[in-house]
Each structure stands twice: as structure tokens, then as C-alpha cells.
Amino acid sequence: MSEPGAKHKFAFYLGCIAPNRYPGVESASIKAMKKLGVELVPLKGASCCPAPGAFGSIDMNVFYAMAARNLVLAEEMKMDIALVCNGCYKSIWEVNHKLKHNKDLRDAVNEVLKEVDMEYKGTINVYHTAELLYNDKFIGVDKVRDSVTNPLTGARIAVHYGCHLVKPHKDREFEKEVMLNTEHPMWMEELVSALGATPVEYRNKMQCCGAGGGVRGYDIVHALDITNEKLINLQEEKVDALTDICPFCQLQFDRGQIEIQEKFGATYNLPVLHFAELLGLAQGMSPQDLGLDLHGISCESFLRKVL
Amino acid sequence: MERTKGYPAALDKKLQDTKLYVDDSNPEFSKSVKAISRTNSHMCYQCGTCTGSCPSAPRSSYRIRKFMRRAVLGLENEALTDPDLWLCTTCYSCSDRCPRDILPTDVIMAMRNLAFKRDIVPVNFLKTVTAIYASGHGVPNNDVNRAAREKIGLSRDPPTTHTYAEYMPGIRKILDHYKLKANADRIIKEREG
Hints:
The complex is a heterodimer.
Chain A: E1 8-13, H1 17-21, H2 23-35, E2 38-42, H3 52-58, H4 60-76, E3 81-83, H5 86-101, H6 103-113, E4 126-128, H7 129-134, H8 141-146, E5 156-160, H9 187-194, E6 198-200, H10 215-218, H11 220-236, E7 241-244, H12 247-264, E8 272-274, H13 275-282, H14 300-306
Parallel strand pairs in A: 1-2, 1-3, 3-4, 5-6, 5-7, 7-8
Helix pairs in contact in A: 2-13, 3-4, 4-5, 4-6, 5-6, 11-12
Chain B: H1 9-16, H2 27-37, H3 49-53, H4 64-73, H5 76-80, H6 93-97, H7 104-117, H8 123-135, H9 143-151, H10 168-177, H11 180-192
């Protein structure tokens, strides 16, 4: 057997919001996954996925071509892609899937990519890191549990699944069938339990954060009203933190709480952490290592419980 | 003379406003929506599961079912000029639950594509385009974040187009192929001067 540090290797597709707003997600993912036998190699020259709401709304053809360019970068490295954001998953996974199965789309995209000396071949797969953590073919819940050195005991943590990783389920192809359940999934709760925390369910947990589809930019009050409804439902369950697997949802819940305070006068002070950040904490990374001070809502109340 | 047939005058007048006139319907619109969305929009039987699943519906006049009907009937102007078109958060709950296996979300995306061709588009969508044209990122790095990255042991800029600017000409070429930047600049200028 090769060294345990590199059982699986993936091209690490970063996206925009993780590296440029919540860099702890990037560093925690690299370090935590390494401890679990997964090496994340930088995908040099990657761009925005591109944002499925903005680009998909304007011109689907550009959306396909721009996502294909990111896919080709990984094809050239001969590596599958791992990523940390639901929005990126929608662009990168879905365009890969569509191009693999539709020759007309593939030909049209390659026509454009030819201008930049690239060709989409359809040779790689795309995974979300949450999927790698849950699927025992790569890591699995047991290995996640074994890697925990600082269990998050006593913390009540709710999960926001977000939309674009799992929906629409009829188009998704997860190896783990429970991930195709979009009405009442529990696989993320299993991962939260593995960290020693208490997963908490709440009303309408599969509801959208409100930010997607360009709505955050188009009508911020409308977007925040959706977020606010989720925050009310979360408050009812007295959770210590909300965990997500999408930095855009995280931005909407975290910075969004400040905007909700300004616009609606409601205060929640609910810490919002990407699952990679939680995993990092449970594996012994410090809040400073994770850059948690960059969060709009202070994580102090949550950290006091678990550290 | 008193009316003996049809609805009473008042009701008839009311219904005038909601009648479908053939002139309003453009069959090409239905076909375009289907081609761009790659989903069988014409299969919709108006059950309303989509609107019932929609997080935007309870807080606005946006009704996805209405847009599905417009797609089927070819009501191009009515669909593309309705500002509610831009209230879909693309959460795909409707697509997840549609008993006809249609993806109403992608129907909305197709309609937005067609609206953009007529310069009907909110500027925030275009600003994402110009941001990506400038740096490759829709949400670019900033100095506060650069300092934070350095503090936690990461490079000041991520190993994306931010570090490897030599990839930018390729990205601009792809966007220019579709004249996206030129159109975005023109529309933003028209709106904001």
C-alpha cells in the first residue's frame, strides 16, 4: 500500500466565495481531507464556475462553455474534481453530466473551446467534498468519527443542505442512495453526529436560503425574507450553530443576519459554519487557523461550548 | 336591446381582459423555451405542485405555474415582461416534485435567456459578467481577505485566475465569442449612464 496520506487525489476546485470570503473553508478542507487520506491538489487557473444563477439566466451557452473550461483544466491534470460549494456543484457537475450525454452540446462547446486551444473530452467525474466524506468508497462516516480529536460534545447543530447539490434528485447520480432523498435527508446529520455534536432537525429544513438565482442581487429584501423564515424556524429549536455545505448559503445566513438586523430589526446571533470548518475544529484546528473571525456573526458562543 | 345570449355585460367585460387572443400567442416562443430548457415544458397539466413548493410564492406575486402556462400557450410578451420572472431562486423544489418530470426551474432560466436577448435583464446579473471578465471571479478577492488568508497559512491570492492571470485571455475570448461583455457594458450604460 502507498502512504496513507494519498489514497485518493482530486483537483480542488475552489470557486469564488470560499477562497475570497471564507478562506477557512479552503484551508480546513485541505487539512482535514488529508488526515482522511484524500489529497486536494490546486486546480490552477480555475475561474468562477460560472455562477449558475447569473450566467444560466443570461445565456446557457456561455454557462456551458465557461464551466467546460474549468472541467478541461482538470481533464488535463487527469484528475477528478472535488469542490466545496453547492452552486459550483450545479455548474461543474451538471455541465459535465450534460456534455457527456449530449453530443450536440459537446460539439457546440468544443467549437468555442477550440478558439482557446482546449477540448472537452468527458474523461473525469465531479464530487462535492460532503459526498466524499459520506461515501465510504472514499472516506465514510466511520473514518470521519475516528479522525475526531476534539469532539463537539453538547453542541446542538442544525444542517442546511442547500439546493444545488441534491436537487433535482431525478437528475442526480449519487452512489449513496440516501443522498437522493431530498424531502427528508439525514446523511448530513450522520456526519454531524460523527463529530460528537447533537444534530437538530427543524421545520422546513430543506427550504432554500433565498440567495440563489440572482435574487440576492435583484431583490435583497425578498431574498432575506426567505432567510429570515429559516432563521425563525432554527431559533425555535434553540440550536447553537447552523452548518452548511455551500459558501453562498453561508454568506446569506452569516452576512445576511446583519442585513436582516438592519432591514427587519430581528437579531439571531446564530453562528454559521461550513461543515469543513466544523470538521477542522473537531480535528483540533484552532478558530484562528480557520479564520473564524472573518465571519459576520461571531462564533464565540458556539466555540465556548465545544472548546 | 337587452342581451339574451352569453354572459351579462359586466361579466363579459371582466372576461375580456383575461381571454386569450391568438395574436398574443407565439408558437415559436414555446419551441424556443423547450429547446433552451431541454425539458418537456408542454407536458405541464397545471397541477400547481410547483407553486406549492416555491419559497418565493408566499412572499410575492410570482407564480411558477403561471409561467408554465405561458410557456405552453406561447405567451411571449406576457412572460418576458413580467418582473416576477427574476424572483426564482432556482432552488429546484418545483423540479424535484413535478409529477410530469418537467424542470420548471429550467423553463424560467430559458425565459430569462430569451428576455436577455431583448435587453430585458436586471443589471446585477450583468455585473457578475463584468466581474468575471475582469478577474475570472464573480466574487473577487479583497485586501481584508488577503491578509486573513496569509494569517492562516494560505497564499494571499487563491491558485485560481487570481494567481495565474495568464488564464484570463482565454476566459475573455470565450465571453467575447458570445459578445457577452459588450452587451453587458452597453445595457449597464443605458441603465446607469
